[in-house]
Amino acid sequence: MKAIFLDRDGTLNKGIGFIHKIEAFELYDDIVLGLQRLGDYALFIVSNQSGVGRGMFTEAQMAAFNRHLLTKLKKEGISILKVYACIHHPDEQCKCRKPHPYFVEEAAREVGVSIKDSWVIGDRDTDVLLGKNAGMHSVLLLTGDGMKHLKSGRMAEPDYIAATFSQAVDFILFDRHEKLISRDEIETVILKERINKKTIVTLNGTFDILHQGHRKIIAEAKQQGSCLLVAVNSNASVCGNKGPLRPFNSEIARSRMIAAFPEVDYVTIFPEATPIALLEEIKPDVHVNGSEYGKGCIEASTVRKHGGRIHVVELLPEYSTTSLVTVPSVPAK
């Protein structure tokens, strides 16, 4: 069976540090729906609880907190097969503390988990390294301690860095590979859509750490026509435009997440600094841009000379990857 190994604190329930008091228990808003969507996976919790070994709380208090969590999830139809917890002090050098894969291997022995088809979701570098050490996929969450562990977490090379648990689920469950098209396929795809009388809309961007601003511009872009093609900057293009510390997520991961949006019909990757050469090939009926670029954007003359128009989306000023992620990090591979 395929499985999801979930961190606990900062991933499922809010709070950082040594969480153990039931009265402080609070799930993140998207956890219940996210776990329900993962119904085809066996669910496990793997947690480092060194507060026990440090004498900050008892093993009984930890167990009571876990029971409370499991009871809340069970009421929503969510079953956690087993909770694994390392209670040792880090100085004890035990074999069960994450990122050691001891508990994952135990789950594989006990219930026949298929490691290569399984995932780890957590907010620390140790979760990503657990996945790597066990031979699983991983998603690093920016909830909980995620921002603090962004640099070390991405150096461990997770499959995706997600702002929310729901994004992690979207990434894991993605199955719309037919939406991902190469540059060589664009001419054929656009010709087919024009024969079908579709209005072609284009949108381009980095789409690194996804946020509400991205959702807004994608939704409004789709309203401008009947076929939305999103062009995602390649890793090299992002690096050239935004500096050597970007992107946080790879071009493949970013394309996959954009293709998961139901409004998006096709996604392609472009390596150039600007999408002008690509727009010359597509000749869109509408090209969508954010308000920071406006109708006088660099794409405008190319789009208009082929009879298209520019549509400007008023952006949400409080949302951007740069404002959300301020921790220095290393480039995506």
What is the structure about, briefly put?
The protein is α/β, with parallel strands linked by helices and 333 residues long. It is built from 14 helices and 11 strands.
Gyration radius, to the nearest Å? 22 Å
SSE sequence, one letter per element: EHEHHEHEHEHEHHEHEHHEHEHEH
Low-confidence stretches: 327-333
CATH class of the largest domain: Alpha Beta
Distance between the termini: 30 Å
Let me know the average pLDDT: 93
CATH fold type of the largest domain: Rossmann fold
Please describe the biggest sheet, giving its number of strands, its sense, and whether it closes into a barrel: 6 strands, parallel
Structural class: alpha/beta
Give the overall shape. Answer: elongated
Give the neighbour order of strands across the main sheet: 3-2-1-4-5-6
Beta strands, count: 11
Write structural notes for this entry.
The chain is α/β, with parallel strands linked by helices and 333 residues long. It has two domains: 3-173, HAD superfamily/HAD-like (Rossmann fold, 3-Layer(aba) Sandwich), CATH 3.40.50.1000; 177-324, HUPs (Rossmann fold), CATH 3.40.50.620. It has helices spanning 31-37, 50-53, 59-74, 102-111, 125-134, 150-155, 165-173, 186-195, 212-222, 235-242, 251-259, 276-282, 300-305, 321-324, and strands at residues 3-6, 42-48, 82-86, 119-122, 137-141, 160-162, 200-205, 227-233, 266-270, 286-290, 309-313. A six-stranded parallel β-sheet has the order 3-2-1-4-5-6, with helices on both faces. The longest helix is centred in the first third of the chain and has 16 residues, at 59-74. It is elongated and about 70 Å long. Residues 327-333 have low confidence and may be disordered.
